[in-house]
Amino acid sequence: MFLICQNIYALRQVAGIFPGHPCPAPVPAFTQMKRIDPTLLIMANSGDARSQYRVGLAYAHGDGVEQDYSQAASWYLKAADQGMAPAQFELGLLFQSGQGVPQSDARAASWYRQAAEQGVGEAQLNLGLLYDKGQGVQQDYAQAASWYRKAALQGIAEAQFNLGLFYERGQGVPQDFSQAADLYRRAAEQGNSAAQFNLGLLYDNGQGVERDYAQAAVWYNKAADQGLARAQYNLGSMYSMGQGVPMSYADAFFWLDLAATNWNGARRVQAAKARDRLAARLTPSELAQAQERANKWLADHQE
What 3-state DSSP class applies to 273? Predict the structure, then answer.
């Protein structure tokens, strides 16, 4: 999964651009700037890289001008050619998505690399992803791990999770469950649900950490609260056995019901069967309360 606006906010803030909330809700056109600041355009046309980047952002977001990714790419290119890392990163995003330019993972990789070599964490992550998937570059897990590591050191949760996954699998790096647990923990503490689940699984299995069912339940719970079906299933199973948590068929039913709702295919059937077996252990009142609780959770977590 590639970056959303929150991930690149810090990058733009460093350049002193678009302060305030990183992802403002869409607003009517009349509330936006009516036109680009003429002084900004003069500076951009005179070759000032920072101004060229800002004009590119304006075209990309339709701020003061009609949204035009082709114009955004043109202005980003002017700034990128002068070595401005944020512009190189944004240009990479456009080439990867094919917005305003012909889609090209190879050109995206080239621009990400230039920004990554200047220390842009998001570019390091995206370049790692391209090496991971073999898109625009020859697939190379060692190179992917190297770029993930650079981004992970900058605190980017997705990079920490991806590098943790490499250590768990021994992919591009020697297998090391302890390193995987450490990286998962860093990402998990930032709210990454997949990392929370994987850390829970390591505690559950005693891999890289001492086996601790209570800790496994804690991390499963965090991921389950974010709607991760496999975490909901594992947490429900732990409640059904009293493993790491007090035994509670009602809580087990609740989490398994959510897993059955959120999963698809064979796994949904698996969760539903486990849930239905527990239903027989609940009184009608307990069952109704557990179902009501699950329905409320789903209603509260609808996007």
Answer: helix
